[in-house]
Amino acid sequence: MKTSLTEIMNWEERFRLNFVNSISGYNGVHLIGTKDENDNTNLAIFNSIVHIGSSPPLIGFIMRPLALERSTYKNIIATGYYTINHVHKSFLKQAHYTSAKFPVSVSEFDECNLTPEYSAGFSVPFVGESNVKLGMKLQEDIEIKANGTRLIIGKLQEVITEDDFVQDDGQIDLEKANDVCVTGLNQYSTASKRTKFPYARLSEIPNFKRKKRPDNIVFDEESQEYNANLLAYGTNIGAPSIEPTGVSAWINTSLNSFNHSFKNKIELLKNEYQSLIDAYEVNELVYNASMNFEPIIGKVYHLYFSNKKRKNFLSLIPPESWRMEYVGSFTLNNDKIWKQVLNESK
């Protein structure tokens, strides 16, 4: 694929938004906690946290243009303090939905069932569920004139985390902390360590231009020595070939067969487990909604969100008949289990 700026700008808006947001690669996922001058709390998810410097410790993030009211920005400017909280797998879904457009008077802590946690001497709430929490003080508010966004730079005031997450060299083990990352706006992944290299010094740079030795040359990369004379088997081209015995061949074949069968069963269990989780979430969603009637088995009902009551409700009225915020369509089976169905009129 090769595309130009002109082509990108002519794409459908949502497709362009997802594409451009994801091409920069994986980003960390964080919740920024703030409080206004009347002690009303606010929580918002960000994927633009960036390291600015270590001495003093400075961390920045990007704030979208202020054409709309941004409670996070307004509170930071008013109080000068905020918290940055790493998001991990156990509350990822709750963290994601803090991005919904709640009224200014509503706290995302309350609506998304997250715990405001306070540290002595720090007036702004942390997220109690987070494994890595940072207390920040505003240092600079820089407008990026190219698109009207703002770079907010804060100085680190305190860190709250488990001793076990800090490695011997000082780095935070984000895999152990169950951190998640994101590409685009809503495609989340888990963080895992792949490898670790020493600090890059000119005197220790490997010879990347060194030619690879032929396959018939016996060389130990770890000791950087030729060691054919130390091996217990012949290594030259004329040496007898090493072939597995009949029993070894049978073991290898049987082991491959077992592994294939075992992996298939694991995949089936994983798929069944995911189906159960999906079914549970659907039923939790519907059964927690308001109902003013007893549903009939096999009939299709439609779920809507009421801005007035801040709650979902079930109705027989199809979504094309009014302008309520449509959530989905569902039907009840004989086991009193709700299943989501496709509303073909949508």
Q: What's this, in brief?
A:
This protein is α+β, with helices and mostly antiparallel strands.
Note down, in words, how this protein is organized:
This protein is an alpha+beta fold and 346 residues long. Among the domains are: 24-190, Electron Transport, Fmn-binding Protein, Chain A (Pnp Oxidase, Chain A), CATH 2.30.110; 284-341, no CATH class. The protein contains six helices and 18 strands. A hairpin with a 4-residue loop joins β13 and β14. The longest helix is centred in the last third of the chain and has 42 residues, at 246-287. It starts with a helix and ends in a 5-residue tail after the last strand.
Shape: extended
- Could you tell me how far the N terminus lies from the C terminus, measured between alpha carbons in angstroms? 32 Å
Biggest sheet strand order reads 3-2-6-9-10-5-4
CATH class of the domain at 24-190: Mainly Beta
Q: Beta-sheet strand percentage?
A: 25-35%
Helix content: 10-25%
| The CATH H-level homologous superfamily of the domain at 24-190 | Electron Transport, Fmn-binding Protein, Chain A
Uncertain segments? none
Radius of gyration: 28 Å
Count all strands and give the number: 18
Kindly list the characteristics that best describe this protein.
Pnp Oxidase, Chain A; alpha+beta; 346 residues; 18 strands
SSE layout and pairings?
Elements: H1 5-9, H2 13-22, E1 27-28, E2 30-35, E3 41-46, E4 50-54, E5 57-63, H3 71-79, E6 81-86, H4 92-96, H5 108-111, E7 116-119, E8 122-127, E9 132-144, E10 149-161, E11 180-183, E12 187-190, E13 219-220, E14 225-226, H6 246-287, E15 300-306, E16 311-315, E17 325-332, E18 338-341
Antiparallel strand pairs: 1-11, 2-3, 2-6, 4-5, 5-10, 6-9, 7-8, 9-10, 11-12, 13-14, 15-16, 15-17, 17-18
